Amino acid sequence: xxxxxxxxxxxxxxxxxxxxxxxxxxxxxxxxxxxxxxxxxxxxxxxxxxxxxxxxxxxxxxxxxxxxxxxxxxxxxxxxxxxxxxxxxxxxxxxxxxxxxxxxxxxxxxxxxxxxxxxxxxxxxxxxxxxxxxxxxxxxxxxxxxxxxxxxxxxxxxxxxxxxxxxxxxxxxxxxxxxxxxxxxxxxxxxxxxxxxxxxxxxxxxxxxxxxxxxxxxxxxxxxxxxxxxxxxxxxxxxxxxxxxxxxxxxxxxxxxxxxxxxxxxxxxxxxxxxxxxxxxxxxxxxxxxxxxxxxxxxxxxxxxxxxxxxxxxxxxxxxxxxxxxxxxxxxxxxxxxxxxxxxxxxxxxxxxxxxxxxxxxxxxxxxxxxxxxxxxxxxxxxxxxxxxxxxxxxxxxx
Amino acid sequence: xxxxxxxxxxxxxxxxxxxxxxxxxxxxxxxxxxxxxxxxxxxxxxxxxxxxxxxxxxxxxxxxxxxxxxxxxxxxxxxxxxxxxxxxxxxxxxxxxxxx
Lengths: 399, 100
Hints:
The structure holds two protein chains of two kinds. Chain A is an alpha/beta fold. Chain A has helices spanning 9-20, 35-45, 59-72, 82-87, 89-97, 122-125, 140-155, 184-191, 215-247, 272-285, 303-310, 331-339, 363-379; strands spanning 3-7, 24-27, 52-55, 76-80, 103-108, 133-136, 163-168, 177-181, 254-257, 264-269, 290-295, 297-299, 315-320, 348-354, 386-389. Helices cover 9% and strands 14% of the residues of chain B. Chain B has a two-stranded antiparallel ribbon with strand order 1-4.
């Protein structure tokens, strides 16, 4: 039986962690993820969990401590944001290539500079090739639900990869919303205990983790890791199916919103989807065949499935909430467009970078995107493929 | 999967590597001959050695075996020729030679 509550995204994630009761939580604070270990420290002090809670001296150390704990056979977790995630960079790769399935909660925040504490995806997008699975949430409920599914996906023997549970900094992490929590016992039963086959503290079978891999081995190790990421697609759907059976909420790689007969579509991630859905609804009222795809799983990237959902559209705008400085569009555009490259007949595609450093994204913005798509269909002219939206600009917004 | 380190080599396909290249047994450095990296070689002169045993703990690669309180000749399969033993020996019992 679900429990109705009202929580911020950070407290929802901390609650999921409390219910799972991991063996080790190594923490270093950074806005806006600080509340996650803060709430968790209270659970430790109140005796609600028996987690080893370690306050370390940096994010690099936090992830290192988690790596050691996970290698030792523990279930380890941590949380971070922005520069903290960047500071973990070296260890992200170590953790992923050592196939240590820890779970990292990320409250997404812009990277410097200028220095900024508000939301965009520049921190986790910078780590998109680190080998972590990445799940993104639209709201507190999804952040909580993604977290409940995270350990099972990461720890699956066919996967064994670390996983980031991402929520939008401040927008989701700090806003209180209604939420349905699950009973502690039901969560424990769903997530299960972690019993790796091999681990450092298994005295009868000594283990070496992270050995040197010369040219004669490195390529094979990387292929094995790439295959594990492919396997994650199947496991993500299996875990989502069991989650739905037990708790009734449905998850896929992405949410298709009014896509059945959509001619114009937006592809985006996170909380902006809530705003854009309002625009879709209002445009549908006016007879515009608008639709939306909200990407939940960015790594592994569900290219085939997204393209299948988009293939009958006439024009598609990919909305990137991070600027990759490629001079050729953001990461979500790059992935989506490359997945569509071999379609016989594909929609026109444009990339719009928006919302950087917490810049507002409104229903009006989303409607202007759809208006631009309608014009592309009408004129047959794609116009600029890569542009920005929402900045003060001496030039007129691309229309 | 728990594959023996001796079964892991540069001929096997990726499917047969252990997950994360983990190694499930101790002492596997015995399987890897790292002595071939050497460009100079320490040569032990037993007659000059006083068995002070200063060399053995200084060796970074445990390549000076000690048995019954006495050092034996070098383990050339693993000695990388760093020369530390040559420097610490007070009795000139270790000669530092070019490899030809």
